[in-house]
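Quick start: what a row looks like.
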Amino acid sequence: MKKILLLTLFLTAIACQKKETTKETDKESTTIKDEHTFSKPDLAVVKHLDLDIKVDFDTQTISGKASWQIDNISKGTEIIFDENTLDITKVTLGDDEKETKFDLGKEVEFHGKPLHVTIEPNTTKVTIYYTTSKEAIALQWLTPQQTADKKKPFLFSQGESIWSRTWIPCQDSPGVRFTYNAKVTVPKDLLAVMSAVNPQQKNDTGVYTFKQDKAIPSYLMAIAVGDLQFQSIDNRTGVYAEPSVLKKAAWEFAELGKMVVAAEKLYGPYRWGRYDVLVLPPSFPYGGMENPNLTFLTPGVIAGDRSLTSLLAHELGHSWSGNLVTNATWDDIWLNEGFTTYVEHRIGEAIFGKKEFEMQNVITRKELTDNVAEYGDTNPDTRLKVSLTGRNPDDGINQIPYVKGYAFLRVIENAVGREKFDVFIKNYFDAHAFKSITTEDFVKYLNENLIKGDKALADKIQLEDWIYKPGIPANITPVSSPEFDAIDQIQKTWRQTGVKGLSQKITSTPEKQHFIDNLPTDITPKEMQELDAEFNFTKGGNFIIKRQWFVPSIRYKYTAAYPAIEQFLLTSSRTGSVMMLYKEMAKTPEGKKWAQQIFDKAKSGYHATTIQSVEDLLK
């Protein structure tokens, strides 16, 4: 903190201020510097968007106008927006649409170009006319053949981290929040949905209107257009999907309403009105995306037995951590993902019980140790507060902020007790609702509201080590699972006793995952075949189990699974999952050649971010 020292020098009393050297944990974020936006929101900032666009599947473009209500804080003559691959045709000021000058600055890799717009000191409205290009990373246009029903085309957006600027000219920083209304014109046989209050059925005009009255950052702007239908689950939750998928999805997510209630009991009211999910075609690059009001979800979560719906608990958790309280920059992404992983596990415990909670803790811990080992425990990217300056901020969207952030919050919970920590988190969400904050803001809040100068407690938590240093601190909370301990015993004996009957002892998804992840390193293809015959791993319907099984199948050359591996990579674009397999393939020259052959066939169905990740790996 700042201190004022009064110094008397010679005979003249001179008042001077001296900033005391501080630890990083005492910093306050007065001016947030986001390295991944050209905009200068401290000078002129957007407040509300009126979007009027047309979606054209023939040209694969979106065109129209973005009308921004702005606050010209500095009373200056310029406002700066972010854009990337957009065709800007005209910019006007005010309701009378007085045309104004604009120019595009120098292009920066990943970031696009700054859009400089000339304004007046009293300007409150800027309207930008534009058309997207086929290079828009945020937009994926699917042919009918690439959809579930294979009858009509499909469009979806993916804005995180800095890709919303490829379909809307905006101030593309998580530290800038705004409300929006939208008018979207689409082909009459399709339905449009957004990250807002949504229609539940098609109309006969193809024109849909949307309203989001909660201030959100640009990366949560989202749109999808396709042959969609809706089915409600309860009075505030439901599912959108293609007709052939709808009933299966609604059955799979039958506990969605219960999840919302469980989260509310822990962390206070759900503040977004409805919570619906949209099941997307397989090329969606993530497990889920927490777009407000409408989570975008991979179809891979539909296992037919409700065994993978814990993913929904994560995306629902973002309604508090991420959407309600948002990381101010991508260097602070652990505030979104670490907190949400914690909330996910707590919702999961409330819905599925303590045994599931303990098993997920062990799985999450393995993900942490594996990821830190892959990066190296001195790698600065294993810190919670990272530095992504000059890099693609998508580099920060890896498992570290999720699982290390979760482990850190478990350390705090363990130090103060769950009851006290629950009150703290609920108050934290309330205090920062609809705000974007930095790591330093969180640390300040933690110090003032939980640690409160208690040195023994601070020493127990060791937040400096967790947030600002690489690797895994020594005070990490131990995890264990009696169910997994039993599987570890089975792992020691099954090669002698045989595999018959194992599938009756190892039944749940986390149990199977733990068994697969800990197979003997000298396992033979014949033993792999015996296990496959017992469990039906290769041909089963569970996305997670198949993905985990395919890793040792590649590693130990279980060739009987190769056709299924290829089919998996051809029909899924979930970046983390396909990268897991491509990475394993790339460890050998013949495997890398095989990976390239599959990728050449698969990439037309992959999202642009997935393509980039695989290309970087296979170079």
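That is the whole record. Residues 84 and 112 are 4 Å apart (CA to CA). Residues 1-30 have pLDDT under 50 and may be disordered.
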